[in-house]
Amino acid sequence: MRALCATDLSAASEAAIENETCLECLGRIGVDTIHLVTVVPANVHSGMPGVNFEERRRRGLDQYREVIEAAGFDVETHVVRGTPYRRINGIAETVHADLSVVSSRGQSPLENRVIGSTARNLARTTVVPLLVNRVERATDDPEVLREDLFRRVLFATDFSENAERAFDAFSYLRHATEEAALVHVRSPKDEDADIDPRERLAERASTLETWGIETRIEVRHGDPADEILAVESEVTPSAVLVGSKGRSRIRRLLLGSVSEEIVAQATGNVFLVPPPRAV
Asked: Which InterPro entries match (predicted)?
């Protein structure tokens, strides 16, 4: 598997990319090649006096390369110019990445606005599964909040086609997962459904348990994002696994979707699986 790791060379990015446990977790799910990508924003000019941004960033990536290669991965580096989320998506497609990783402090003060906006825009437009890796807020020397990226997974489902696609990610996440909580939030239109959601969750739990994953199920009522976040605060998973429902470029840019709210507000990591890309 190939992973694309995006970095702006900030302390938050460094905490995620050089964390030994995080790298070990990526190895467990089958990642053997990591593409390190940094994007010089288009409005930053290389001709500014005394500044060579591309060279500085390449040196920064070389430092990361040494750490990641020592952990047993093949590494390729990319220094590009443009709009960060667009270039990251473009490189993910070009190198046939199986997932992308971006760090986020979950806030956007001025000093973190680039990486914060990049994480949000990737959540809306990502072309491959996206791991938003949380790091500590309001500190100059941040640490990763959930080092064991996939040890405890909270899977949120509405039983849609893309939710099932997200569940399929367990086919490789299971090698790093020990516990899982499966959650469905019922809406009024679900009340007349032919199949009890607990039965549907139980079927999926049975699959995970055959893989040795300790699993619990829960059905809630209310606002989907609020209830999913409430479960996250109760079970403190390493990551929330959820599918993105965007079907078109326009819909993906709309604010307020459940997946976007989870990416914005979750305490821990979020693993977002997008719909299949149209050919």
From this structure: Rossmann-like_a/b/a_fold, Universal_stress_UspA, UspA
